[in-house]
Amino acid sequence: MSNGLPPDIDDTTISDSEWLYIRVFPDKDSLIFDQNLKVFRPTTSALKSREQPLSVDLGSLCTPQETRDRDRSFAFHIAAFTAGTARRYGCRVVRDPIQESQNEPENLAHALVFGNHDSGSGGLIPKSQSRKIAHESRIVLLNENAL
Amino acid sequence: MIYPEAITDAATIGARPAIEWQIRGHATTGIEFYPIIQPTWQTALVEKISGYRSLPQNWNSYGSPPPSPVAIQEAIWFVTSMLDEKKPRPRVTPVSGGGIQFEWSFGERQIEIEFLRDGTIEYLLADTKTNDETPGRFDRPSRIDIGRLLSWLIDA
């Protein structure tokens, strides 16, 4: 790709069972309590990314706490979904390790979830893929102060 | 408290927030008027959405701009003009890219209305039982339009 992103070819070395972690803005309305599973999940807005592929961390290379602590500007929740879930809804998962620089600290667990390739944006299809993935996501690290 | 700009916004766009006026006597000036804000979920949402003005760049830690002024204005207009206390309260959150999302879930049905950065309003009706999804776009929804959407949500 010419936009500085890695090629959006699904990385099969990332197994379907790999957990992908993402920070969720701490707001009461960002979470929904699943009465059947007795867990919180994020609302679809947490997984929307129109212009860019979705940034996530690979669960085999870091913990939810490490994902949370990469940015301390807010006390974020951490949501998780599997690479298999993303693939089931047409997404591709690609490794994108970040090397330490003046602008960013190192994050070797960083990966990207590419969505609607027809649009050329790399972003998820906001009204479909994001919703379906959000429904299968779980909050694995809860900021109780935001409830 | 409600922020002053919340009232300004509602007045600017011609909406009617839940404001009543109380008349009190005053020793030197005679009579003064004090606004009384009714504590409804609508006024709480207007306050919440107005607060998005103070979100910083990169609020979501993934580089997103905060909700745009036009998205905030449209969302406040929607709350004050399209919704009332008898309708279900939506979940309201900022969205990556400078927008604001309203979301209702009821049983297996879900409605999303998103106010995009440029002021465009898009929606999605989704039924997880049938896997049906109906996307669409509003130029400027009427109360009848919104009433139909919310009826679809509740009348499953």
Secondary structure: helix percent of chain B: 25-40%
Question: How far do the termini of chain B sit from each other?
Answer: 37 Å
* Cα-to-Cα separation, first versus last residue of chain A: 41 Å
Number of helical segments with 4 or more residues of chain B: 4
| Number of separate helices of chain A | 3
Strand order of the largest sheet of chain B: 3-4-5-6-7
Radius of gyration of chain B: 18 Å
For the record, the count of structural domains of chain A works out to: 1
**Low-pLDDT stretches of chain B:** 1-18
Let me know the number of strands of chain B: 7
Strand content of chain B: 25-35%
* Secondary-structure-derived class of chain B: alpha+beta
Radius of gyration of chain A: 15 Å
Biggest interchain interface, per-side counts: A-B, 26 and 26 residues
Mean pLDDT, all residues of chain A: 90
Largest β-sheet summary of chain B: 5 strands, antiparallel
Strand residues, percent of chain A: 25-35%
N-to-C SSE series of chain A?
Answer: EEEEHEHEEHE
Notes on the structure:
- The complex is a heterodimer of chains A (147) and B (156).
- By secondary structure, chain A is α+β, with helices and mostly antiparallel strands.
- Chain A has one domain.
- Helices cover 13% and strands 26% of the residues of chain A.
- Chain A contains three helices and eight strands.
- The mean pLDDT of chain A is 90.
- Chain B has 156 residues and is α+β, with helices and mostly antiparallel strands.
- Chain B has helices at residues 4-12, 41-51, 69-82, 143-154, and strands spanning 19-26, 30-37, 91-95, 99-106, 109-115, 121-127, 132-138.
- Chain B has a five-stranded antiparallel beta sheet. In chain B, strands 1-2 form a two-stranded antiparallel ribbon.
- In chain B, a hairpin with a 5-residue loop joins strand 5 and strand 6.
- In chain B, helix 2 (41-51) packs antiparallel against helix 3 (69-82).
- The radius of gyration of chain B is 18 Å and the shape is globular.
- Chain B starts with a helix and ends with a helix.
- The model of chain B is unreliable at 1-18 (pLDDT under 50).
- The A-B interface holds A 23, 25, 27, 29-30, 32, 43-46, 48-52, 55, 70-71, 73-74, 76, 126-128, 131, 135 and B 56, 58-63, 91-97, 101, 103, 105, 110, 112, 114, 122, 124, 126, 128, 133, 135.
